[in-house]
From TrEMBL:
It comes from the Bacteria. PANTHER family: CARTILAGE ACIDIC PROTEIN 1 (PTHR16026:SF0). InterPro entries: Crtac1, FG-GAP, Integrin_alpha_N, UnbV_ASPIC. SUPFAM superfamilies: Integrin alpha N-terminal domain. The keyword Signal applies. This is ASPIC/UnbV domain-containing protein. Keywords: Signal. It holds the Pfam family UnbV_ASPIC. It comes from Algibacter mikhailovii. Gene3D superfamilies: Integrin alpha, N-terminal. Residues 505-571 form the ASPIC/UnbV domain.
Amino acid sequence: MIFSCNQKEELSDSLFKPLSTSHTSISFNNKITETDTLNYFNYPYLYMGGGAAIGDFDNDGLQDLFFTGNMVESKLYKNEGNLKFKDVTKPSGIKNNDQWFTGASLVDINQDGFLDIYVSVSGKQNKANKLYINNQDLTFTESASQYGLDNEGSTTQVAFFDYDNDNDLDLYIANYPPANFGSSNAFYKSKMDNLTEIDSDKLFRNEGNGTFKDVSIESGIANYGLSLGLSVADYNNDGLLDVYVSNDFSTPDYLWVNNGDGTFTNQLEDAFGHTSFYAMGCDAADFNNDGWIDFVQVDMTPNDNRRAKSNMASMNRGLFWDTVDYGFHYQYMQNSLQLNRGNKKQGVPYFSDISRISGLATTDWSWGPLLADFDNDGWKDLFITNGTKRDVNNKDYFQNLKLKINLTRQGPPINSLDIPSEPVENCAYKNNGDGTFSNIGLEWGINYKGFSNGATYGDLDNDGDLDLVVNNMDSEASIYENTTNDLNSNYVRFKLNGPEANHFGIGTRIKIYQQKNFQEVQVTLTRGFQSSVEPIAHFGLPKNQKIDSVKIYWTDFKTQTLKNLTPNQTISVNYSEANLKNSPIDNKEYTYNFINISDHVNIDYNHEENNYNDFFQEPLLPHQYSKMGPGLAVSDVNNDGLSDIFIGNATAASAKLFIQNTKGEFIEVIGPWQEQIIFEDMAATFFDADNDGDPDLYVGSGSNEFAQNSKNYRDRLYMNDGQGNYTENIKALPNLFISTGTISEADYDGDGDIDLFIGGRIMPAAYPLAASSYLLKNELIETGHLSFKDITNTYFPSLNNIGLVTDALWTDFDNDKDLDVVISKEWGPIGIYENENGKFIERTSDFELDEHLGWWYSLAQGDFDNDGDIDFIAGNLGNNYKYQASKEAPFEVYSGDYDNNRKRDIVLGYHQKGTLYPLRGRECSSEQIPAIKYKFKNYESFANASLVDVYGEDNLKSGIHYKANTFSTVLIENKGNDEWAIRDLPIETQLSSVNKILVNDYNKDGNLDIIIGGNLYASEVETTRNDASIGLYLEGKGNGAFNAIPSQKSGLYLDGDVKDMEFMQIGSDLVLVVARNNDTLKFIKVYE
C-alpha cells in the first residue's frame, strides 16, 4: 500500500518532468542491504539515507551532481548539457572506502574558484569526515586532516559560513552521537551536563592560512544533540549569520544567535513558542516576502488517519512534561513552519509556527524540506522528501515483538525484514502568497512514492527555472526537469563573485524590488537534509517588467545597488564594486504604535498556576479548563484620578490590588482576597454596586478542579469604602456555585442600579456539559438594600442550558434604547438576545447566525463600517490548530456513559475523506474506555475504524452531540433591517485563539481599530498548544475591513497565554496592561 500526500486525484500538465535513467545516465541508487550483522536492531540509523549536492565543479557553466551513498559508493556526475550526465566518479578519486557517507556540502575552501566537496560521515566505525579538494580537472584529493577538519563525531551535515565577518568561511559541524533510540531525558541531560568532545557539535574558525581552529567552547556553541538539520541565516536582521540546529527526539534544538564578538547565545526558548519533537531536516527563507527570514523543519507524523493511528509515536503526558521540566522546551510531533515576526527584544527574533493554517503540519516521515520558487511566481514554494524504509513506529509489529520476547525470554530477532515497509509520497506545496500553501505534488509531477532522503535544487539546463534532484533509498535517484520556463515565466539570477576567501559570496543577502513586489534570498548552500544547493541566487518574477532595484548586502557590511535590470538573465555581481556602509541591513524605520515598558512598571506580580491535572479525571478532554485565568480589572479605586489595577490568581496564590501614586508607582493594598486563596479568579470587574460613587469589585470563581457545586466556586463581591479598602459582602449575592467564565455589568432595566450577567462555563468533570448562566437583578433602588436577585427563570430562562459561555456584551444592537445581550460560547453560535420589555428573546436564527458554530472565546462591539449601528467582533479558536472545522467537515464531540461505568465519556471526532473518525488513537481512547482495546485487538483495526465503528451508532445517539463548523475569528456586520453578515478577519487574526478584543480609534483617523490578544497553552500533549499569537493591531478602514499591521511595524508583542487586557493611565501615558496565565503582567505604552 502506498500513502498519498493527501492531495487531489485529478492530473493536469505537470510542471516537472521526471527524467529517465536512459536519458540522464544517472543510475545512482542508495541501496541498503540488511544483514544479520547490520540491521535496524543493531544499527537504528540504517534508514536515514544520503544527501545530494549541485554545483559546477569544472566551471563550464553547467551544474554537476554529487550523491552520497551509505553502503554503496557515492557518485559524481558531470553535466554534459541537455540534461545528460556522465559518471566521472572513478577517475575523480572520490571513494567511500566502506565509510557511511551522509551529508554533502560544497565550498571553495582553498580559494581557487573551484568548488570542493566536504562529506559528512557516520556509521559504526571509521567516522572521520572527508574533504575533497577540487584539482580543477574533475579529480579530487582528500585533504580533511591537512585542514584539521577530519572530525569523527558521527556527522549528519555541516555548513560553511562567515560567522566573524572577516570574509573567509568558517565551519559548523552538526553531529548525531550514538544513542539508543528513545533514551530517557535523564540520559540526554547527563550527556549535556557532562559533555565530551566527541559528542559535541563543532565550530571551526578559518584562520586564513589554510587551517581551521576548533572554537566550539570559546564561541559558546559546544552542545549535545541528535542533530538532523542545520540552517544558517541572519534571523534577526543584524547582518550577522546565526545558526539553527534541528535535533531528534527530545534533545532540544538550538538557535545560536551571533553576538558579533565571536560568541553565540542560544535563544531558542525566547524565540520559539515550540519546536518539532522528532525534528529532522530544515531550511530557512523569507517565504512571505516581508524582509525577515523564516524557518521550516519537518517531523514524522502522517496526515492519513490510518497511518497516523497505526504508526503513532508515543507521546504520553509524563514524557511530554518531563521533556519540558528538563528544560528541553515545548516539543510536538508535527512539522513547524516558523514565521519570523521580527525582534521581540533587542537582537532576539520571535517566530510563530503557522504550519496548521498553512496546511503543512503533517506530511508523514519527512526528511528534507526545501523552500524555493519552483514556479517563478515570486513566492517560495516548499518541497519535502518523505519515507522510511521500515515503519519502525508500527505499533502492532513492536507490540507483537515485545510479547514474543516476553514469552520466549530471548532478545529481538536479528532480521529486520519483518518490520512493515510502506512507500510514501514526496510532497510539494505551492505558496499562495497569503501565508497558506496548496498541496500540488501530484499536479507538479514530483509526488514520487518511495523512500527519499536528501534533495537539492538548481538550474541544470540553464533555462531560468529550478530543477530538482532527489536521493532515494533502494531506488535510482530522481531527476526532475522544471518546465516552468516553457510557460513564459520570468526570472532573474545572480552569480556572486565574492571576496578572495569567499568566492561564491556565501552569506550574501540579495533584495530585489519590482514595482510593489519585494523578494530576498540569502545565499547559503546547506539546505534541507544532508544536501547542498547551487551557489546562485534565483528569483522568480511575477511580471516581465524591469526590476527597479537590487540591493546586495555582503557579509562584511559592504553593499551595492543595481538599478533598472532586465528580467530573464543571470547577472554577475562583483564584490570589488561594493561600498562600505555603517548599518548592516537596510531596514525601514517605523514609528511604533506600541512600546513594551514592563521593566519600568514596579508591580511585583506573577500568576502562579497550580499543577492540577484536568486529564486525570477526563483523559480525553481537548484542553484543561483549570488554566483559563486570571481575570483583570482596572479602575480608580480611591478617587484620586489615577488608574489602579486588580489582578486575580490561581488556587493557592493570592490575587493583588495595586494603587497608583502621583509618581506612576504602584503600592500593593491589603484585601480579603489574600485570605481566600482557595478560589480560582477567572474573571473580575469593577462597578458601583451600591451607588455610593466608588468602584466595588466583583470576582468570578472558575476552574475545573473542584467537585460540582463546591463552595470554592462561589463568586465574591467586595465593597469599597471610598478609599480603596475592600470588605466582602457575602449576603448580597445568591448562592451560585458554578464555574464562572465571564461577568458583564449594566443597568439593563433602567432603574438606576447596576445588574449582572454571570456566564457559566464548564460543568466540572462533565465536559462538554456547561454550568448554568444567570441574570442577577440589583434590588438596591427597589428595596434600599444591596441585594442581587436571581431572575433568570423569569426573564432569561434560556440561560439555564445556554452552553459553555465565554463572554457577553450588553448592547443595543437594534437601536430601540434598551440593552440587549450578545453571548459567545464553545460548541455553538454567537447568541443574539433581544430585550423585549425586560425579557430576553433569542434572535440568533432570525438573523441567520445559528449556522456559524465555533469555539467562540471573546466579543467586542463598535460601528466598524460607519453606518450608524453596532457591529461585533467575535474571537474564535483560530485556524492554526490541530482541530480544523468547516461546514463540509465539522469538528464534533459526543458525550455520554458509553461503557456503563457511571462516568461521562468524551469522544472527539474529525472528518477525513468523507468519514468521521475518532480524534484520539487506540491507546488514549482505551484509557477512557478499556473495552476498546478488547474490541479492537490491534492498532491497525482501530486505525481503519470510523467513529461509529468504535462506539456504535445507538450509543452515540443516546448522548450529547455538538459540532463546530468554523474556527475563524470574524466580523459580524449589522447591515440594518435585521440583516447580518459574517466575514473572516484577515489571516493574521486566525493564527491562534483570540481571548480578548479591545476597540478604539488608535490612529485617530475616524475609524475604529482593534487590538487582539490570545493563545491557548492548556492543550492536551498530543495537540500543539496555540502559541502563535503575539497580539495584533488591526487598523480599521471604516468600511468593515481591516489592515493587519505586522509587529515589526507596530511594535506590539503580546506573547504568552494572554487571558485578559485592559487600558489604564500610568502617569500621562495610555498603557495596555496584559494578564497572562502562569506569567507576569505585561505593560505596553500606546502612542496615539
